[in-house]
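Weekly modeling sync, notes
Attendees: S.R. (lead), two postdocs, one rotation student

Agenda item 3: backlog of single-chain predictions. S.R. asked that every request posted to the team notebook include the full sequence so nobody has to chase files. The rotation student volunteered to paste the first one in as an example of the format we agreed on. Action items at the bottom.

Example entry:
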Amino acid sequence: MIRFRNGEANNSSHSAESGNDKEPDKQEVESSTDIVLNFMVDATPAAEVKIITDPRSGDAITAYGEGPIKATFHNKGNFEMYGTYRLTRGTYKLSIQDVIKKDLNLQAGSTITFNGPPLLADLGLKAVYTVNGVSLSDLNYGGRFLAEIRKS
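Predicted structure, as returned to the notebook:
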C-alpha cells in the first residue's frame, strides 16, 4: 500500500494510520542506492480504487473502472502517475461538517486523469443523489415550477 502525505509517497511505519505515535528519527540515512520503478497498470472493473478525500470524516471515493495507468517511482525523487481511469460505477461518501452525510452514486463515464503527482489528479466526476418523497412546495418554488411544466 502506498500512502500519500504532504504530496510525497510514504511507506514509513511511522505514518499516522499505523498507530505508532513515535516521531520518525530526525536524522535519516540517505541511501546510496538508486531505485527507479516504471510500471503499467491496465485497470479493469474488477479492481476497486479508493481515494480518501478526508480521513477525519471518512469522506471517500470508491470506484470501479478501467484504463491504462503508467506510474513511475524514484526513491530519491517523485512518484508520478499518467493516464485516464474511466469509471463504470462508484460511490462518493460525502459529509458536510459532520452533520450531513450522503452517499452519492458516481455515474459511468466519470474520469480520473493523472498527469504527474497523484494528488494533483483531475477529477471529472458526475454524481447523482436520489431523494424520495420531496415536495417541490418545500422549496417555495414548487407552484411556479409546476405551472411552468403544465404550460410546456
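Discussion: group reviewed the output briefly. The first helix runs from residue 142 to 151.
Action items: rotation student to repeat for the remaining queue; S.R. to check formatting next week.
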